[in-house]
Amino acid sequence: MGDAVGRRMVTQRAEMNSVLDKLFRSKGESTHYELYKLLSSYDTETLLFMMAKANNRTVKRQISNFFTRLRGAKVSLTGRDLKHLGFQPGPLYRQILDALLEAKLNNQVNTKEEELLFVNENTAIPAA
User: Fold this and answer.
1) pTM of the model
2) Is 93 helix (H, G, I), strand (E, B) or coil?
């Protein structure tokens, strides 16, 4: 195991109790997007360890939900699509794609067409 991997594991392990506490305090009422943002940066091994360490069924269910339904979530639109819609490349792309991911995870959009409609309805194209 490389030094970087070892440091990452130690850091994630140190954050584990805080993450488990946040999951416990949410009482399973977090949106899918909130759950995704909380857990997506952790390695599989760390998440499995969290699940094993959790003493609460709701917390275990939240981590399981992340693994089975949320972990691989992606939006269909790309930066190229945003450029074709008239947006200039830059930090705005990340904001749009994050908002789109939130909408997808919270079941507001499902298809590429719905994603396009969401972007058109929720984002103004800044003047060049």
Assistant:
1) 0.80
2) helix
